Amino acid sequence: MGARVPRHDFVPIAPQPTGSRLRMQLEAAVLFAAATLVLTYPLATRPSSLSRFDNGDARLNAWAISWVSHQLAQDPFRLFEANTFHPLPHSLAFSEHLTLHGLLALPLLRLSDDLTLTTNLLLLGYIWFSACAMYWLVKTLTGSHAAALLAGLFFSFAPFRFNRLPHIQMQLYAFLPLLFLSLHQFLLTRRRIFLVGLSTFLVLQALAGTYLGAIAAVALAVGLVTLAPFARLGARDVLAVVLSLGAAAVLLVPFAVPYLWVNRELGIEWDLEGMASLSATLWSYAASGARLYRPAMEAILRGREVTDYLFPGFTLLGLGVVGAWDLVRRSGRRSILLCYTTILAAGVALSLGPRFPLYPFLYEHVVFFRGLRALTRFGLLPLFTLTVLSGFAISWLVEKMHRRRTRRLVVWGIALFFVAESATLPNDFHPYPDQPPEVYRWLAEAKPGPVVELPFKVIDTRYMFWARHHGFRSTLNGDSGFIPMSHQWMKIALQRFPSSDSIALLRSLDVKYVVLHLSAFRKPTLLRLLRTLPDHRDALLPVRDFGKELVFEVVSARGTAEVQTTRDWQTLVITEPHGRPEEGRLTVDMELPRGSRLRAIRLHYGSAPRVPVERVEILGESGGNDEPESRFATPPDWPAVSDLVLGLLRTPQDGTQTVVVEDVSEHRLRLRLHGLDGEQPELTNIELLGSFSSSAGL
Hints:
Blueprint: H1 21-39, E1 50-51, H2 56-74, H3 99-112, H4 115-142, H5 145-157, H6 159-162, H7 175-189, H8 193-208, H9 210-231, H10 235-265, H11 272-277, H12 294-300, H13 314-329, H14 334-351, H15 359-365, H16 380-400, H17 404-422, E2 430-431, H18 438-445, E3 451-454, H19 485-495, H20 500-508, E4 513-517, H21 523-532, E5 540-545, E6 549-554, E7 570-574, E8 580-582, E9 585-591, E10 597-606, E11 613-620, E12 629-633, H22 640-650, E13 655-664, E14 668-675, E15 685-691
Helix pairs in contact: 1-4, 1-5, 2-3, 3-4, 4-5, 4-7, 4-16, 5-16, 5-17, 7-8, 7-9, 8-9, 8-10, 9-14, 13-16, 14-16, 19-22, 20-22
């Protein structure tokens, strides 16, 4: 039996054109290529030197692309074991993995060995491809070449794109219209090949960017819910849809697992308050990033809460209304109107984030919503909807005009008005050629081992951009929206470099080289650093001077070994170690069972330590004197912050410091904990390790 014929009022697709189809597609491709070169000016004039790498996010994305390209060729099964945030695993999952971008960049990097040129070629290609994809969707839906040309122009060259040029993961949204092209074709023809296309484009869109994957998934869910009932799918058709979506999910599982691990083990996720700061407001949809409107709208909206520029322009608004009216009056097309207007509503609602009443429910029950922060990116869905509706409007206008010259004048007039109101020319590109400092080429040939580049910042991409020039050597440095607590405290330790604490940390993490970027330090900090370096000659061996960069080798400590607690040690826990707060310290009195031997103290901070302990004192009975006598004290160079960092690396949800004490066996003890920089320490509990004869009252 043949495929079931859909209900006759479900007619979502215009008859396919014949004869000149190839000529029209070639014409569209050429026009979109010309528009890409012109409307991205001045990028095409110097693609190997101009970029948006003045922006930290752009440099982070360039590093991710180069890492993925490198790793796909070297060891694809360890794709997420990136070279940053040493020694934490799955560090690529701290930000978007950009796998598809890295795959596309692989041949370009091999041929050019130029990351700036490669990313610019990708950007130009994405802009062109997005226009072509929307052309194919609207041409299929309307049958109008002119409508499809203008729709491609609207979708790919709206201010939404140019406001996000540093974010290459938001540039490849061409698979969204291809996804809906496959959906429409399947619902009309029931041919399974279109389900293969649907699942393929969904996977590709997700691999282009986490946000784009979420956006595509939301749009597809709306499309299925609103269109499928009108198509009267049979049981086999429904099963085929479910299987195709299941196949897409299976393909994406390996890319989701590292993110789930990061969320579970490191406790990294965005809270609703953080999401609200990067969510849209209704005023955002009245704010434009285009040169023509931006000054006036900023004056009008002064004092309003505007978190992004999402105004689509009067061209899309006007034509979108006309297109909706055209679909309303055609009874066979109302299902399309329902589909796309619902997508528009969903996009606006999700872009509002916690300001939308339903969003907290999604946050609690749909796991990937916890990893999304820049929710204004859902503003892509209103742009997508208005573009499709505008295609129907232009198709209707062209049908009403019988004279060819009039049709051309109208089409060109609409195109020119759209460009005039949407253009961001000249775009804000800056010189940033792929010409690394000499130190990176030297590191590529130097002895193996992790490095750290100073000054060390928690969020800093200045050094990551050059990573491929030193062979992606492991580094403590990194950048991400998700910063592990261990590396936040690493910053505190390395700000004091070359202190005993910071050197102990570097030794514990097996760091081989320290690279000092002298021009990046503030003058007082640089003078202090250069003055104190000679005091640590036994730990830091100068190996190279590159003028603006100095390289030191970290010498391993001699004759040291990590002290391990023995298995027969017992544990006592002080669950609420508030004690007596004093200026800059916390005092806790302890009463141990008689005959006990205290061997170590472990201080617990939880997942987000505030003020760590810098010095520990244990005082015992003094035989009648008011002040107890000292029984143990950490040495002045005890690596307190280093120990906290190592504790956070071992147990990210509960940072710890472990102090091994000289055998203390008194009955009553007083513990004094001095906070870092004279502040009172904050602890969740204190763990006593040793030999205890019975339960103790603490």
